[in-house]
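Q: Start with the shorter request: fold the first protein.
A: Done. Sequence, then structure:
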Amino acid sequence: MELRHLRCFLAVAEELHFARAAERLHIDQSPLSRTIKELEDDLGAPLFARTTRSTRLTQAGKLFLEHVPRVFAALDQARASVRAAAAGYEGQLRIALSNGIAPACLSSLMVLCRQEDPEIAIYFDEVPLIQQIKGLHDDLYDVGFAQSADVGDGIAAEPAWRDPLVVAIAAGHPLLAHAQIPLEEVVRYPLVMGDPQACEGYNHQIEQILRALDKDLLVSKRVMSFDLMMALVAAGFALALVGASQIVATRESNIVARPLAGGSLMLTTYLLRRATDSSEALDRFVARVGRLKVHTSEFTRAIWACR
C-alpha cells in the first residue's frame, strides 16, 4: 500500500464518482480504477459498490475512510515539525478549533503565547467537534477549543472563557426599541442557527437556553460559518444569538448588537485535552488560558461602540 492508493481512495470516497475523482487527481479514469483495485486486493475487501448509475462506499470502505484522513494529517504535522525545527523552534503545540471560537479571546491568547513562549511553534486546525475529539485521542492535537464539554471519557474539558450572549439584529429592526431585549421577544422572530455538525457545541448551548422558554422556535436557516450567519442577519433575513466578542469582530456594518434583558446568559468556550497528557509547553499554555480574563465590562463597551 502506497500513499497514491490512499489519495485515490480518498478522492473517490469524497466524490463518490470515479470520473470526477479522476479529474480532481488529474489522471485518467482507467489508472484510477486499477489503483483502487490494487488497494482492495491488498486489503482483502471491496471498498466501493459500483453500478452504471452510482458509486457508494461499502461497510469496509466506510471504516477505512475513518482512518485515511488521519494518515495525511499525521504527514502534514510531520512536515510542519521538521520545518519548525529548521526555523529554530524548540517545540510545537497543535491546536484544534471547533464551533467558531471568539476571535478576540483567541487573539489575546496568541499574543501571550508569542510573548512568553516564542520558541514554541503553534499550528491551528479548524475541524468539527467530533473530529477534534478523535484527533485528541489519536494524538493529532495537543489541545483544542470548543463550545461543548460533552466530550466523552479520556478528554478533560474546562471552561476557558465566557462570552456574554447578545442579540445580533439588522439596523432598523423593531426590536431595537428595546435597550435590553427580553428573550421572549427574540423567539417571536426567525433565527439563524449553526449547522448541527460544524457548530455542535454552539447549537447545544443556545438550544438549551431557548428550551427553557417552552416555545416552538422558528429556525429559518442553519449555516456553516459565522460570516454567513452575520450576512443573513445584516440582510434582515433573521436574528442571531451570539457571543459579544463575535459581534465586535464582524465586518458587517448593518448589524446592531443588543444585550439580553437580565444580562446573565453566557456562551462558554471550553479547553479540551487528553486527561492524562502533559508536557511543559502544554502546561504553560493551559496556565496561560487560566490567566486570560475577559471582563463583561469590556464587551459591554464594545457592544455600544457597534450601535
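Q: Next, the second protein, separately.
A: Sequence, then structure:
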Amino acid sequence: MKSMTGYGYGEQTADFGSLSVELRGYNSRFLELNINLPSSLMVFEQPIREYLADHCERGKVEVTVRLRELVSESEVVVDTPMALSYYKALQELSAALGLGETPRLATIVSMEGVLQVEKKRDPERYRPFLNQALEEAMRQFEAQRAREGEATAEDILRHVGTIETSLATVQTHAPQLEEHIKKNLRQRFQEVMGDLVDENRILTETAVLLMKYTISEEISRLMTHLKEFRRELKENPAPGKKLDFLCQEMNREVNTIGSKSPLIEVSQAVVAMKDALENIREQLRNVE
C-alpha cells in the first residue's frame, strides 16, 4: 500500500550548469499530472508524463523541472533590412523637422527588432541528466509514499480488528435476538387472545418474523467482506478504490444489523463498527 502524498528531489550537475526535478504528491480520486518545464525542455513533457503514469495509479502529482545554465550559448543576430528602414525613417524625420542631424548607431540599435538574441540549445543534450534527476526524485518520492502507506495500513488494520471484535459480539448475541423475537410475539398473542392462543399460528408468525429480522445473513456477508478486505490490503499494491467499495458494502450490512436488533449490546457493537468504518474511509482518501 502506498500513500498518495509524497515528496522527491533529484539534481544533476554538468558543464552547462545544473538540472533539478522536484516531485510533490497530493490526494486525488484520479491521476492528475501537472508538469512545469522550461521552454527549452518542453519536448520532454510527454516522456515525463508517461514515466509518471507507469509509477502512479492515483493522486495529483506536480513536477517542476529547473535548468540553471552557467554559460548561455546565444548568438546575436542583426536584422539589417530593419536597421536600414529605421535609419531612413529617422533621416526623413530629421529633414522634415529641419534638424539636419544624422541618426546615431546607438539610437538605431535600441530600436525594437534590430538586434535579436537566439539561444542555441540542443534538448537532447539534457536528456540523460533529466532522466537521472527524475529517477532520483522518483526513488525518494516512492520511498516516502511507501513509508506513509505502511503506517496507514497499520492504522487501518487496527480499525479492522475493532470491527471483527464487535462482529464477534454481535454473533454472540444473535441467538438472544431470535429468542427475543419469539418471546415478544408469544407475549403479544397472549395479550390479545388470552388462553385461546393457536400454537401453530404462533409458530408460523415466528418463522415469518425470524426470516425478516434475523441477522445471520448480514453477519455472514460482513465476515466475507472483512476477509476480502484483508486479502486486498495484503495483495493489491494499489487497493484504494477496492477497499473504499468494500467499506461501503460493510457499512450497509452494519446499518441493517443495527436496524433489526433491539438489543443494547448489539447496538453498542454497531456504533463501534460504524465508527471504525468511518475512520478507515478517512484513511483511504490518502491511499493509492
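Q: Describe the second briefly.
A: The longest strand covers residues 59-69. The chain has three domains: 6-72+125-145, 74-119, 148-284.
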